[in-house]
Amino acid sequence: MNRLLPLAFLACLLWACGQTPGEEASREDTAVESSEAPSDNTLSAEEKSEGWTLLFDGQSMDQWRIFNHDTLMGWAVQSGEMVALGEGGPDGHGADIITKEKYDNFDLSLEWKISEGGNSGIFFYVVEGDQYETVYHTGPEYQLIDDTGFPGDLAASQHSGANYSMHAPSSITTKPVGEYNLSRIRVEDGHVTHWLNGKKVVEYDLWTPEWQALIDSGKWNDYPDYGKARSGHLALQDHGNKIWFKNIKIKTL
Which of 9, 137, 150, 236 has the fewest CB atoms within 10 Å, i.e. the most exposed one? Predict the structure, then answer.
């Protein structure tokens, strides 16, 4: 049998398809590259079409400032990450930062990692004013903490993903210190859902009798305006230790 015939037949097939040997592999490589996740602090074409916007571009913190101040201190941008330096801030209350914009119904997604023994939080519906010393006087908190290495006992509602001191997470799903976690908060018409690393861990409703009963029976009873606002700033807490954030994105609902 003539061994040249199969090779000639293959060449004819490739010519008929308008493709040279090696082009097929090249196209497969292109398909693999196009399916990769977008780089940090960027949005995919799908996210843009869905209405997501970035709150941090990996280079500047132009969309943030210190609570009750027009300045920014105690934070830095390092290697595409937004870092709370744990150095404190004005008025002796830490360098908690808030978004310059206010939000009501939203879907927020971000990634974070914390230093050993660290503690922080994500807040929403934060209200400013001389009568409020810190962000937690008004804004509910999505807790961020070193669940295994924190130097102290943690109540059930003080673990990562909790609605701090109000609703405990259904499970503890944080990754080891030094690894990034993915958190998500969705707030729509008073209904709030917390996710941590892809798992729904907390769900609750604002401004209901049950909500008020939890406030009245706990530590927030000392803060008369806690959890009452229906829109406000988002906030990230400087609790005196390092915490890193990236891929902070939001979609208004």
Answer: 9
Contact 41, 58 (CB under 8 A): yes
Give the whole-angstrom CA distance, residue 96 versus residue 51.
Answer: 27
Please give the Cα distance from 209 to 247 (Å, whole number): 36
- 142 versus 2: the higher-pLDDT residue is 142
pLDDT digits (tens, 9 = 90+) for 129-166: 999 999 999 999 999 999 999 999 999 999 999 999 99
Q: What is the spatial distance between Cα 205 and Cα 209, in angstroms, rounded to a whole number?
A: 10
Nearest to 193 by CA among 214, 157, 169, 209: 169
Check: CB of residue 183 under 8 Å from CB of residue 110: yes
What distance in Å separates the CA atoms of residue 226 and residue 134, rounded to the nearest whole number?
11
DSSP assignment, residue 37? P
Strands ordered across the beta sheet of 141-145: 64-66, 97-103, 232-236, 119-126, 141-145
**Same structural domain, 183 and 215:** yes
Together in a domain, 70 and 193 = yes
Same domain for 95 and 10, yes or no, is no
